[in-house]
């Protein structure tokens, strides 16, 4: 982009290739304003009707969450090639307009345009988002017809579709039949088992992955630690966490949060504090929120106060630390401290969001006002004061 500015200052006129490359950059970086500028330049140079430029514009607008503008570009095209159709289908899928993506896919086939691996990967992704198992199975049959069943990206999309539809048996069968597997294929299986509640199977699959000498990544370990969390397997989670560096994976905030949550819920606060002390993410609110929630389970007021203090330092207008800390105090019978926290919340004008209820087919917001004096009186009565 900087080179393009230099090019402009030098009065060098861009051509089709220049615009396509710039639109690709805008798409990847999601820089909408610069993308619109390139669109204006393409109109001025009478290149906006070029099919390569138009496809680039569709991609750019779709990735920048401007699907309506992408549709307008597509509708104005007089020479739509397969790339343009693929870009539009992918854009609709990305924008969760999955039914429209299927309609466009059908129109494309009616024009005798043969789908590619990219087309199938996009449309199968739409099946995952719906989720629609019958349509997904139909797409699998078509991938076989067009010879893309062994494509690793199409195969991975099919695994994702089966896992999202809750059919882990079919996902496993398809995975076993895949000739080529990449890290995304393995991740989809582990994540699918985790999300479907088969956490033990997810961990066994991860162990199998290591036996096959397939290196994991951050996403893999997030699913693995989530499975450990749902199983309550603290020691196993710590074992995986401690060997992450050996596996070539640098722990990220999600991993630390999961471990702190596990240790905290198990009441192993000393270990949780040690993890926080050694990690590089001390100023991330999620860490302290997870720790504070764990303290609430065990009514650990000492560590809870420390977690709340750090959380309020980072996000002072977040009502959660006030409410959780007040609940901890109430659980310990420290009603005056609970009221003091609530009053501090009022003085700082921190407002808790209202709840929503579905009543008689209508959504209603409910906001309860807090009256310290009445709550204090009730607390004193409960404590026998």
TrEMBL record:
<comment type="similarity">
    <text>Belongs to the PPR family. PCMP-E subfamily.</text>
</comment>
<protein>
    <submittedName>
        <fullName>Pentatricopeptide repeat-containing protein</fullName>
    </submittedName>
</protein>
<dbReference type="Pfam" id="PF13041">
    <property type="entry name" value="PPR_2"/>
</dbReference>
<dbReference type="Pfam" id="PF20431">
    <property type="entry name" value="E_motif"/>
</dbReference>
<dbReference type="InterPro" id="IPR011990">
    <property type="entry name" value="TPR-like_helical_dom_sf"/>
</dbReference>
<dbReference type="InterPro" id="IPR046960">
    <property type="entry name" value="PPR_At4g14850-like_plant"/>
</dbReference>
<feature type="repeat" description="PPR">
    <location>
        <begin position="81"/>
        <end position="115"/>
    </location>
</feature>
<dbReference type="InterPro" id="IPR046848">
    <property type="entry name" value="E_motif"/>
</dbReference>
<dbReference type="GO" id="GO:0009451">
    <property type="term" value="P:RNA modification"/>
</dbReference>
<keyword id="KW-0809">Transit peptide</keyword>
<feature type="repeat" description="PPR">
    <location>
        <begin position="182"/>
        <end position="216"/>
    </location>
</feature>
<feature type="repeat" description="PPR">
    <location>
        <begin position="217"/>
        <end position="251"/>
    </location>
</feature>
<dbReference type="InterPro" id="IPR002885">
    <property type="entry name" value="PPR_rpt"/>
</dbReference>
<keyword id="KW-0677">Repeat</keyword>
<dbReference type="GO" id="GO:0003723">
    <property type="term" value="F:RNA binding"/>
</dbReference>
<dbReference type="Pfam" id="PF01535">
    <property type="entry name" value="PPR"/>
</dbReference>
């Amino acid at each position: 982009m900087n080179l393009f500015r230099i090019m402009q200052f030098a009065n060098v006129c861009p051509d089709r290739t220049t615009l396509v490359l710039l639109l690709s950059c805008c798409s990847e970086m999601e820089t909408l304003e610069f993308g619109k500028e390139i669109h204006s330049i393409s109109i001025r140079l009478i290149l906006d009707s070029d099919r390569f430029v138009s496809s680039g514009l569709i991609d750019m607008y779709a990735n920048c969450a401007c699907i309506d503008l992408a549709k307008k570009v597509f509708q104005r095209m007089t020479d739509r090639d397969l790339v343009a159709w693929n870009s539009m289908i992918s854009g609709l899928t990305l924008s969760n307009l999955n039914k429209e993506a299927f309609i466009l896919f059908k129109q494309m086939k009616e024009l005798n345009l043969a789908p590619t691996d990219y087309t199938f990967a996009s449309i199968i992704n739409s099946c995952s988002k719906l989720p629609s198992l019958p349509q997904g199975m139909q797409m699998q049959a078509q991938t076989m017809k067009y010879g893309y069943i062994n494509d690793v990206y199409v195969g991975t999309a099919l695994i994702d579709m089966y896992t999202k539809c809750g059919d882990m048996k079919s996902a496993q069968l398809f995975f076993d039949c895949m000739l080529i597997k990449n890290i995304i294929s393995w991740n989809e299986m582990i994540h699918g088992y985790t999300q479907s509640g088969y956490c033990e199977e997810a961990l066994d699959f991860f162990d199998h992955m290591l036996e096959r000498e397939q290196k994991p990544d951050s996403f893999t370990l997030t699913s693995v630690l989530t499975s450990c969390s749902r199983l309550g397997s603290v020691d196993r989670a710590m074992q995986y966490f401690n060997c992450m560096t050996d596996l070539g994976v640098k722990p990220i905030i999600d991993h630390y949060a999961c471990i702190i949550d596990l240790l905290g819920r198990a009441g192993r606060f000393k270990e949780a504090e040690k993890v926080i002390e050694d990690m590089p993410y001390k100023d991330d609110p999620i860490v302290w929120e997870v720790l504070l929630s764990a303290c609430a389970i065990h009514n650990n007021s000492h560590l809870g106060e420390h977690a709340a203090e750090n959380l309020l330092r980072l996000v002072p207008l977040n009502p959660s630390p006030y409410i959780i800390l007040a609940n901890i105090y109430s659980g310990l019978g420290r009603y005056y401290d609970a009221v003091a926290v609530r009053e501090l919340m009022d003085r700082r004008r921190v407002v808790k969001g209202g709840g929503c209820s579905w009543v008689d087919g209508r959504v209603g917001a409910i906001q309860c006002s807090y009256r310290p004096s009445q709550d204090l009186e009730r607390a004193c009565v409960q404590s026998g004061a």
